[in-house]
Amino acid sequence: MAERGDPEHRVGTPVDARAQSRRRFLRQAGVIASVSAAAGWAALAPPGLPFSLRDPDGERGKPARHAVSLRKGGFAVPASAVAAGLGVARGDRIDAMVRAAVDGIGGIGRFIANGDRVLVKPNVAFERVAALGATTNPEVLVALIRLVREAGAAEVRVVDNPIEAAEACFERSGVRAAAIEAGARVYLPSPSDFDVLHTPGAQLIENWSFFHRPFVGVDKVIGVAPVKDHNLCQASMTTKNWYGLLGGRRNQFHQDIHGIITDLARMLRPTFVVLDGTRVLWRSGPTGGSLADVRPGRTLVASTDSLAADAFGWDDLLARDPGARPAYLAKAAAAGLGNPDWHAVAVKETLVG
Amino acid sequence: MADAVFRRGRDGKAYLAGFEPSPDGSPWWVRKLRITNVRVVSQAFFFGLFVFLLWTTWFSRLGGYPVSLFLELDPLVGVATAIATHTVYKWLWRGLFVLIPTLLLGRVFCNWMCPYGTLHQFVGWLFDIRANRDSIDANRYRPLFQAKYYILVVMLVMAAFGSLQIGLLDPICLLVRSFAVAFEPASDLATRGLGEALASRGVDADLSAALFAPGASHHRIFAGAWFVGAMIVVLLGMNLVIPRFFCRVLCPLGAFLGVLSRFAPWRIERDLTKCTDCDLCLKRCEGASDPQAALRKSECFVCFNCIDDCPEDALTFARAPVTVKPWIVGKVGDVKARVATLFGKPIISEVWDTEVAAPDLPRRRVIFAALFGVLAYPFVRLSKAVNDRGFSPKAIRPPGSVAEPEFLERCIKCDACIHVCPTNVLQPSTLEQGGFEGVWTPVMDFAVGFCQLNCTLCSEVCPTGAIQKTSLERKLGVGEYQAHGPIRVGTAFFDQGRCLPWAMQTPCVVCEEVCPVTPKAIGAYEETITRWDGQTVTLDKPYVRPELCIGCGICEHECPVLDSAAVYVTAIGETRSEERSLLLDRPKSV
Asked: What pLDDT band is residue B347 in, cutting at 50, 70 and 90?
């Protein structure tokens, strides 16, 4: 084929030149027509038709917010006619105490089935060594994970979205090492792990950013939280523990702290919770930072009702006035989310040496 | 088909194509074992090591690796900080590992070790569209290449006055900074996208944990990331205009090594009897060092491409002839006939005009550069931002930092501290916080992060002691540092006009909750009021206990008044400087 600038091309034969220019004209016309038609279709075709980009009012261009939901009815197992409402174990041998506390509410076999995927939520909010009582005792975590695995759990996930730097919190608190030692997998938050969670009936977090990735495929959820003084809501125990699953602008919740804790009780219905009273952070909470702020509690509590466990923690472990319990307990009870009146339920207390 | 994959060697056996023995019978790897291939392996190794050490510079990966190794190996960092501080900090003596080989062999660092040089060479090679003739012309020496020496002179003169500016252009500082502030956050974004794409296909890939920033619930952001990113992209792009533009024109480390290399006994030697003046040695000459004429030793990167490309085998890497005084020469042999030898090398009475040992710099220009440095020092130092009178309230230095004048003698703006910071609180300073002298030095921005109480990582990675290595005991003021008290980086203040309980009848005190010291440095007055709508509410109105506040800024970071927090930390009260203290009753600074 003759190149442009080639003498042969310039001279050519008149017929060939005409033929070529006709071909070129048709090609150009084809390109112009198809680009115009495609652009016209994309810009003008009504929304809904394939390849339409038309957005008459600017609403189409906004990002879609797909909300996820946790399973209906939560992660609770059916109520038992014989098991106690609170399992309390006191002593120093943490292994035996975890077992005794859970035995009090029906034993681990009632809660964990063979092959279950279990999510365990400790409180790892701050970068503190375990002795300072601001985070879940790693020994309790190890014992609990082992118990769950003995019951046949296929996988155990340890999950929290701390307030301080996540890796540092998991490392310093000993929770990461404990989880790995007991054969669980640790989930640290990363930006893509959060989805909008739909919680029907919640006042503040009906649709809220939630640390959802570790919940995918989970059958059972267990919370395990320390007993802590709290500057604003007076105490932080098993119900407030779920705060560590939220993302987004969660620092706004202090404007209605009891409202948010009530919503948390609504958001997550656990299989059971363990209140870790091996240490009690009785002042300077929720961060603490001095051994003087901590006293030994020698107690573990298991319950399917986090309100009962929290009320027990307030009365017995923090040893505060039962008449002045944190307002969220009454609020959540009024919403039918549990019963903080632990005296009214069966309590099975075991003394472990 | 099989013929394309297998080839029959001279011995009749079949070989994988490319692996057959050479015609002279030597095995394939002898053919491949060219010095330039060894060089490429060395470059790949050091670049890989550089990236690996950056990757390990993260909370969960630190395991005793020398994460700041390349910054410590950089002899310009060692020499310039020694000029500024009259000391050699911690591991900076490691610069000898580069300095001594340069004295012997020339600028081998530039083309064998330097990860930034490797990056430039790689980009230049990948996007090279030049014909042979153009390549030869592109690699001729230009007077523009003197610029790096003037840059070096300006920077060293300023360093002598106590203003360390080498980090603006030092290649290792520049590359660490580019990774920390621009590349890695970009990689976080890509990881997130990829992770989400995989998750939507049911693959549970924790990519963020494998790549750069695991465990961060927010993407890292950095002040001026766009500029740091644009700078490296433009500099890399300049390779398309002038090959190795940065290395030849701007690099102050290259200039420093060029000055050192004038003494190197080994260099490229051209055999005039074999050379046909074809100029093919320039085709891939990295340094533009004129191997076809009088070799410019100070420009040569010792890449050995010229030896590879010479069709006449006229070029070798050899020890230079020994020059001695004529009266000695006369006694050992006939110099003119080149038969006098010492240790096997010919002895001559003067340096051949076939090499230019020292950088080719007109003296008046050097003097001009030095005067420029002399003037630049007062200009930057008399700026308000860096002085104890008029410093920015947001010039909050990380804990362990030495006082500002000493900080500016040491900080090389490498941003290794910013890279390792687990909360993203450390940010490259802009003109606003640090003035011109402080650009890219670390400052804390509590809108982005906060200083983790039990963390001293920034002080661990700092190669120059701008952030002095600080134990946790010292940071917290416990143990043997009990009497000194904790390190304070600033003090918290309340803006009662923006605080929810103070100004808006709304409960809050997140600040008190998260305050990590004990007893808490934020307390609250309890007050029960009748709200505008008639409701009775109990408000905790927070206040600061300045004796207890360490300035960690978690209160500011967690304050729900996001855009301009109702509790905020400013630099006043920092323990590193008596001049910037706040309270009369204070422990002695360490």
From this structure: low
d(CA B537, CA B304): 80
Radius of gyration of chain A (CA): 30
Residue B117 has φ and ψ, to the nearest 5°, of -60, -40
Selected residue with higher pLDDT from B217 and B583: B583
Q: If you count residue pairs, one on A and one on B, with CB atoms under 8 Å apart, how many are there?
A: 118
pLDDT of residue B463: 97
Q: Buried b vs exposed e over B136-149: b needs ≥16 C-beta within 10 Å?
A: bebbebeeebbbbb
Q: Is residue A9 part of a domain?
A: no
With tokens 């998750």, the residue in question is B199
Contact assignment for B423 to A165 by CB distance below 8 Å: yes
Please indicate, yes or no, whether residues B535 and B563 belong to a single structural domain of this protein: yes
CB B148 within 8 A of CB B170: no
Please provide the size of chain B in residues: 590
In a domain, B500, yes or no: yes
Calpha distance B164→B381 (Å, rounded): 11
Q: Are residues B441 and B520 in the same domain?
A: no
- For residues B80 and B126, state if they share a domain: yes
Starting from the edge strand earliest in sequence, which strands make up the sheet with B341-342, in order?
Answer: B322-323, B345-348, B341-342
**pLDDT value of residue B324:** 67
Residue A2 lies in a domain: no
Number of domains in chain A: 2
Residues B409 and B465 in one domain: yes
Residue B328: its pLDDT value, please? 65
Range of the domain at A321: 71-351
- Note whether B184 and B207 are same-domain residues: yes
The answer to whether residues B18 and B159 belong to one domain is: no
- Domains: count for chain B: 4
Q: Give the C-alpha separation, A325 to B266, whole Å.
A: 84
Give CA separation, A78 vs A71, A110, A116, A266, in Å.
15, 9, 16, 18
What are the chain B neighbours of A290 within 8 Å (beta carbons)?
518
pLDDT at A1 exceeding the cut of 50: no
Asked if the C-beta of A229 comes within 8 angstroms of chain B's C-beta atoms, the answer is no
- Give the number of other Cβ atoms within 10 Å of residue B206's Cβ: 18
B284-314 residue pLDDT tens:
999 999 999 889 999 999 999 999 999 999 9
Show residues of chain B in contact with A193, CB under 8 Å: 217
Measured at the CA of B240, the angle between CA B237 and CA B242, to 5 degrees, comes to 105
Contact map slice: A 183-222 vs B, CB within 8 A: 188-194, 213, 216
Same domain, A75 and A122: yes
Do both B83 and B141 map to the same domain? Answer: yes
Q: List, in sequence order, every residue forming a beta bridge with A279; answer none if it has no partner.
A: A296
Asked if A58 and A82 sit in the same domain, the reply is: no
Do B517 and B492 touch, CB atoms closer than 8 A? no
CA–CA gap between residue B138 and residue B121 (Å, rounded):
14
pLDDT band at B1 (very low <50, low <70, confident <90, very high): very low
The full DSSP string for A72-122 is TTTTPPPP-SSS-SEEEEESS-HHHHHHHHHHHTT-GGGT--TT-EEEEEE
B419/B205: higher pLDDT: B419
Q: Are residues B549 and B409 in the same domain?
A: no
Is the model's pLDDT at B445 over the cut of 90? Answer: yes
- Domain boundary residue among A6, A33, A62? A62
> What percent of chain A lies above the pLDDT cut of 70?
95
Contact A295, A206 (CB under 8 A): no
Q: With 80 as the cut, is the pLDDT of residue B340 above it?
A: no
CATH of residue A236's domain is 3.40.50.11440
Residue B101 · residue B250 · CB < 8 Å: no
Tell whether A250 is within 8 A of chain B (Cβ).
no
C-alpha distances in Å from residue A8, one per residue of A3, A19, A22, A25: 8, 16, 19, 21
CB contact under 8 A, B215 and A164: no
| pLDDT tens digits for range A39-62 | 999 999 998 899 999 988 888 888
Total number of residues shown for chain A:
353
